[in-house]
Amino acid sequence: MPESPVPASLAQASKASRHLQPVGDTHPLPCPFCGGGAIVDYDAAYGCWCVRCLRCHCRTVLSRPRTEAVAAWNRRAPSMRGPNA
């Protein structure tokens, strides 16, 4: 039987998106546009991950695995206006 891409605890949670705290090397950097905090978000409808800003709500595209979503977020260029624009 193939291994589920989603931990069992997440599979049993509600169908709504769930927010997970960053862990270890997969910690998302602050938002490159506004400097706000970012979270890793799991979309149960698609079985994919994204990273989004809690302040300005920009986000990455949905990705698999979780580490790819964080890597995409962390590769984004910083804002020319600075983190407090």
Short summary:
The protein has a domain at about 20-75. The chain has helices at about 10, 65-75, and strands spanning about 20, 40-45, 50-55.
Radius of gyration, taken over Cα atoms and rounded to an integer in Å: 14 Å
Secondary structural class: alpha+beta
Low-confidence stretches are: 6-24
Q: Treating each run of at least 4 consecutive H or I residues as one helix, how many helices?
A: 2
Biggest sheet, spatial arrangement of strands = 1-2-3
Mean pLDDT: 74
Sheet with the most strands? 3 strands, antiparallel
Share of helix, binned: 10-25%
Q: H/E order of the elements?
A: HEEEH
Q: How many beta-strand runs?
A: 3
Shape: globular
Q: Indicate the proportion of strand residues.
A: 15-25%
N-to-C CA distance: 50 Å
Question: Which labels suit this protein?
Answer:
single chain, 85 residues, 3-stranded antiparallel beta sheet, 15% helix, 18% strand
Question: Overview of this structure, please?
Answer:
It is a single chain. This protein is an alpha+beta fold and 85 residues long. It has a domain at 19-74. Helix content is 15%, strand content 18%. It contains 2 helices and 3 strands, in the order αβββα. It has a 3-stranded antiparallel β-sheet with strand order 1-2-3, with helices on one face. The radius of gyration is 14 Å and the shape is globular. Residues 6-24 have low confidence and may be disordered.
